[in-house]
Every structure is written in C-alpha cells, then in structure tokens.
Structure to design on (388 residues):
C-alpha cells in the first residue's frame, strides 16, 4: 500500500549512487578503506575517539555487550548472571544480546511523556546487584543523562546507550550515544541516515575499541593495530593471518555501506535540521491537546517519528484513530514494540519486572507513531490536526 505520509523515505541522491558505482569499479566489496574513512568521520561527528562499523544496529548492540565480557577493566567487566536494567519499551535486539550472554534482565517502566525511563522507577530499581543500565533514547529523544549519572554516581554500574533511533540528538550540547562507555547506532533504511543495512558503535575506551575490532571479524587479530590492548604485540603477517584470540562473530559491513555512509554524513546536518523543524511544528500544533499526548522533548531531539498517545481519560479509541489516519494516508506503527515484557520470547530470559509497567502497557494499548521525514511536513501536520 502506498501512503501519502509514509514512515520514512529515501535520503539518497546522485552522490550515493555514484559512490556505489565507484566501489563496484574497485572490485573491493567487503570492508576496506571506505568503511575506515566512514568510521573516522562518524566518530568525529559524534565527538568520540573511536567508531566500529558493523552490519546492523542489532549487531552493534551485540558487539557492545560482548566487549564487556572480555575487558580487563574490573569496573566495567560483566559476567553471566549480572543484573542489567532496561526500559520496558525498546526494540527486540536491545534485549537479545543480554539474554544471549546470560545476563539478568530487569524491566523498568517508562515515562508516559518522554517515552524514556521513568527516572523515579529507575532510581528505585537500582540495587547492589545492578551492574549495568542500558539507556535507550527512544524515537530521537535523548535521556536526561544528568539524572541517570546522579543515580549511578559512586556505584560500579556500567552505562551503555542504544541510540539506534536517535542519531543527531543532543543533551546539553553533547551527542546522544556518547554518554555511556559505548553507544550504538543504526543506518538502516528507516533511520536518520541510510547505508542499506548498517550499524555503528562509538566509544572513547581504547581497550573496548580493540576488543570490538577483534570480535567483529571472527575474534582474530588481523584487524588490530600492531601494538594493541588485546594481544599486546602482533607477530608477522603470515602468523597473524589466522590467529584467533576471542570468541567472535562475523559482523563486518560491506564497503558499499561505508561509501554510502560518507555521503550520508554530508547530508546529516540538513536531515536533522528539517526533522527538527517538523518537530517544532508538531509541538506548536498539538500543544496541550485534550486527548493526545505527544512526546516531551529532553534536550534536543532528532525526531525519529511522532508518537501519539491517547490520554487515559479520553474517550478516543485507538482502532478508530488508526482507521482515520490510514484513510488520510498516514502510515502508522506501534510505538516501537510497546511493552516488550509481554512478548512470548521473554519466557526464555532470566528476567524480572521492577514494580509495574503501567505506562509501558498504556502506550502498548493506546499509542502509535507516524513518520517524520527530512522535508517540510506542513500538509501532514495540518491533516493530523484536522483528524484530531
């Protein structure tokens, strides 16, 4: 079905197509110089020392979790059974790597207005068993990292970020994704930049960077610097060709994705600017609506999409609202996964729920989101106002 107001549209132009042709001409398709150049430019944009590109944002989350099992730094090192706090609303692959590495998952409720952590619930969920907090910046909205850092201050709790939906978001001038010891990003089609498939992890920790370089490709040493923090010093090229030091994966991106990513980064400031203009227009149009809650911005959102949550006291039915939106040409989705803890897959997890997930359940039953795109959406927001 073709929608007049789709969830996402292509941000490619002639430059991206030419970049693809240049890679095809080169005959080098797995990761090479273009991937390395993209990683360098992406780290510079975010303001971190290092970036590792992988084949998806899901793989980026896996790589972050895995790296924490092989670090020599006892303050951030994880082991099976360690407790990890997660928000009850996020994408599935925020949670799966935690399960796959045998961590204890604790679901915490979200704030009905920001869609990020309910900070009071987060504070109360932290205890002496807590070893990590995963901050998920939802739909472009950064968390309140002042409050989160206050909660973990003086405790040996690792903070990582799933920032796959929030490239370009900032909190007090600092990029979301750079507050934790590592942060993940996605460059899938529907996200802020598109490299077909793709994901990135950024960090300022050199050891974690070296660990991820090894884990990304089979756990071998080939991609490590000669002097590194995994195997110390590499031997000759022949011996290092098939030397395996960590139980890794094959998460490598394509050279095509690196080449496209370089061109997409050139467009990113304009992409974020247009998305924010649309966000301001939505806020002005929907401010203090009697029946609908729109996402309350923390810091500067990069507005991945526009959430619409029916207020508890409203008589509006989501089914009817969804039908009207579809008829008007809006493509709609649930707010990420809604309350993820309700899914059947959770029976495989070692997990618990802190308190109740009343807000996560409310958006699960009474919420949806529509798309934002990097071009003026005046017509769409006028139509939305008419429907509501």
């Amino acid at each position: 079905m073709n929608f007049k107001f789709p969830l996402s549209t292509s941000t490619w132009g002639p430059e991206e197509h030419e970049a693809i042709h240049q890679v095809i001409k080169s005959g080098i398709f797995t990761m090479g110089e273009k991937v390395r150049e993209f990683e360098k430019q992406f780290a510079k944009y975010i303001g971190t020392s290092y970036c590792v590109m992988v084949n998806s944002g899901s793989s980026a989350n896996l790589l972050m979790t895995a790296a924490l099992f092989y670090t020599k730094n006892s303050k951030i090192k994880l082991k099976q059974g360690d407790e990890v706090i997660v928000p009850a609303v996020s994408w599935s692959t925020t949670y799966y790597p935690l399960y796959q590495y045998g961590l204890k998952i604790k679901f915490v409720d979200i704030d009905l207005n920001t869609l990020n952590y309910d900070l009071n619930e987060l504070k109360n969920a932290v205890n002496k068993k807590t070893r990590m907090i995963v901050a998920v910046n939802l739909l472009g909205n950064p968390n309140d990292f002042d409050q989160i850092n206050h909660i973990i201050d003086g405790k040996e709790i690792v903070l990582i970020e799933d920032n796959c939906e929030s490239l370009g978001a900032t909190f007090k001038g600092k990029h979301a994704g750079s507050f934790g010891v590592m942060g993940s990003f996605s460059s899938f089609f529907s996200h802020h930049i598109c490299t077909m498939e793709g994901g990135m992890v950024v960090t300022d920790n050199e050891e974690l960077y070296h660990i991820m370089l090894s884990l990304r490709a089979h756990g071998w040493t080939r991609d490590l610097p000669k002097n590194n923090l995994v195997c110390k010093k590499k031997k000759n090229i022949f011996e290092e060709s098939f030397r395996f030091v960590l139980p890794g994966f094959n998460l490598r991106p394509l050279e095509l994705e690196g080449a496209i990513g370089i061109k997409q980064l050139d467009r990113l400031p304009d992409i974020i600017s247009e998305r924010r203009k649309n966000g301001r227009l939505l806020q002005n149009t929907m401010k203090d609506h009697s029946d609908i809650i729109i996402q309350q911005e923390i810091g500067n959102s990069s507005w991945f999409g526009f959430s619409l949550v029916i207020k508890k006291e409203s008589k509006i039915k989501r089914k009817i609202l969804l039908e009207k939106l579809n008829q008007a040409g809006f493509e709609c989705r649930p707010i990420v996964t809604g309350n993820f803890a309700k899914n059947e897959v959770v029976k495989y997890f070692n997990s618990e729920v802190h308190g109740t997930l009343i807000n996560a359940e409310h958006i699960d039953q009474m919420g949806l989101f529509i798309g934002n795109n990097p071009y003026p959406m005046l017509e769409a927001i006028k139509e939305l106002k008419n429907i509501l």
About this structure: The first strand starts at residue 50 and ends at 54. The chain has a mean pLDDT of 97.
